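Is this the right way to post structure tokens for a design question? Let me know if I should format differently. Anyway, here goes:
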């Protein structure tokens, strides 16, 4: 199989992906700032992250994935100016910052579930001698880790302490006139046309805050060696990636908007603290834009969210298909019509899955002619995550199955779906009843868990119970598949 290749923003080239440790990938993704619902542009970023993670898994990698949740320190401007986004919402809604964050985290998780985006498990609370390597972690739960990294930056001479905060000395880090690693712009170019907050304490207006002091109106404050205050936005990603994944990451993702400020600053902080390269591959998704071509953003006031699609009676996974239908590095125009067009593809695949016959379902071996499609699928996927081509291959394979009247493609189709994440297996539940009965799903899940524990007595018991309820369970390489027996309809 052709090795996995991806566009590395650090070198502006498509490169073969080679992780530091064979077979293991450490992957850090910049996650949501939880002060408003995530718009569909944000969700495009997470569909990309999920697809990339699935593609790496498809290539046999054990992916250790960390995503942060920003619940402090992200100001209304990406520089240090303005108000803390979470606190602004908290004041407007008469809630505590924690309540605001909890509310939008729950909404984010729900939207991810609707889009079949697999998030890492929530990081365990408190300090842990060996933190898990896959975690969804909150900034406010990791203040100690941030303080520790800031301490290293200051000790290495790249941070300086003032009455208004601890700042990062950008010019010292880059050298006079030096360009950023990703944006390849000098500081003057990077900040051209922007009004920078110039605290008189800063050596240069380009310096950014690591820790903010003496802001009595800020609701969230913690003690630190420099005084009571709160972290700057960028430091959380340096600190949490290091805590969970180590000092050098294999892969780091975010949207294109993160290149000039957030990711440049993350690199500067991490490398000045550790002396090691921060991330070996930086990957960035392009924007979802409105029909008039403007980036969908929260500051625009009105922005589309997943609930708008659901309210319009659209299967949320249609948005996933819309995203897969474009290359992640190309801008993608959003409209309800474009999602409806994408929904036709998912309906087509679901229809096929729903009508699979028992022979196709139980056959271990797919038809020989599927091999060519499997090859094309891998080729597309490993060529810088060419999902439009991968998706087209899947649709063509199903069309061929119809043409040849040969349904023996189910194993191959499921392998593809492990990457596309369209949940086609779920359609089998609907084969006879038209609805997935929650009680049946619960029993199937319980049986899968029993099998994982090798509790075969319990698993047989559950199979018999399901059988008595009119459902047939088959164990495939991909887990259990349940179909309603004909008599149950
Ligand atoms: P935020 O919650 O603003 O920190 O953004 C979360 C993620 O969404 C980041 O990776 C952003 O780069 C990404 N993002 C924001 N707007 C868009 C957009 N219109 N299209 C694609 N990605 C976006
Ligand atoms: Zn980040």
């Amino acid at each position: 199989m052709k090795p996995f290749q991806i566009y590395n923003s650090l070198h502006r080239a498509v490169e073969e992906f080679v992780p530091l440790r064979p077979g293991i990938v450490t992957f850090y993704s910049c996650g949501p700032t939880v002060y408003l619902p995530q718009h569909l542009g944000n969700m495009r970023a997470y569909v990309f992250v999920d697809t990339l993670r699935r593609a790496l898994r498809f290539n046999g990698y054990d992916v250790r994935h960390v995503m942060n949740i920003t619940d402090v320190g992200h100001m209304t401007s990406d520089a240090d100016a303005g108000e803390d986004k979470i606190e602004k919402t908290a004041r407007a809604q008469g809630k505590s910052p924690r309540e605001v964050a909890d509310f939008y985290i729950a909404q984010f998780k729900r939207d991810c579930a609707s889009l079949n985006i697999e998030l890492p498990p929530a990081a365990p609370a408190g300090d842990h001698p060996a933190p898990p390597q896959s975690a969804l972690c909150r900034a406010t739960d990791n203040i100690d880790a941030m303080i520790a990294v800031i301490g290293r930056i200051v000790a290495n001479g790249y941070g300086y302490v003032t009455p208004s905060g601890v700042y990062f000395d950008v010019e010292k880090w880059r050298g006079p006139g030096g360009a950023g690693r990703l944006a390849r712009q000098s500081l003057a170019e990077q900040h051209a046309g922007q009004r920078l907050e110039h605290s008189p304490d800063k050596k240069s207006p380009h310096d950014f805050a690591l820790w903010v002091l003496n802001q009595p109106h800020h609701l969230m404050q913690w003690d630190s060696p420099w005084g009571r205050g709160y972290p700057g936005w960028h430091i959380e990603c340096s600190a949490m990636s290091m805590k969970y994944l180590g000092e050098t990451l294999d892969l780091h993702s975010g949207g294109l908007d993160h290149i000039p400020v957030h990711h440049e600053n993350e690199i500067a902080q991490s490398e000045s603290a550790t002396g090691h390269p921060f991330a070996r591959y930086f990957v960035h998704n392009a924007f979802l834009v409105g029909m008039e071509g403007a980036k969908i953003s929260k500051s625009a006031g009105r922005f589309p969210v997943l609930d708008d699609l659901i309210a319009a009676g659209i299967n949320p996974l249609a948005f996933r298909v819309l995203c897969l239908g474009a290359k992640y590095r190309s801008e993608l125009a959003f409209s309800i019509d474009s999602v409806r067009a994408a929904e036709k593809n998912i309906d087509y695949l679901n229809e096929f899955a729903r009508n699979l016959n028992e022979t196709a379902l139980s056959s271990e071996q797919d038809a020989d002619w599927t091999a060519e499609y499997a090859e094309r699928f891998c080729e597309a996927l490993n060529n810088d995550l060419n999902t439009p081509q991968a998706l087209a291959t899947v649709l063509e394979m199903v069309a061929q199955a119809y043409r040849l009247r040969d349904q023996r493609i189910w194993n191959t189709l499921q392998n593809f779906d492990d990457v596309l994440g369209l949940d086609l297996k779920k359609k089998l539940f609907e084969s006879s009843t038209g609805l997935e009965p929650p009680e049946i799903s619960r029993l199937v899940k319980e049986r899968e868990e029993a099998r994982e524990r090798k509790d075969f007595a319990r698993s047989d018991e559950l199979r018999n119970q399901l059988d008595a309820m009119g459902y047939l369970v088959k164990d495939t390489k991909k887990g259990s598949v349940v179909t309603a027996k004909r008599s149950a309809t």
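Format looks fine. Someone answered above. Worth noting: Residues 432-484 form one domain. DSSP finds 18 helices and 15 strands in the chain.
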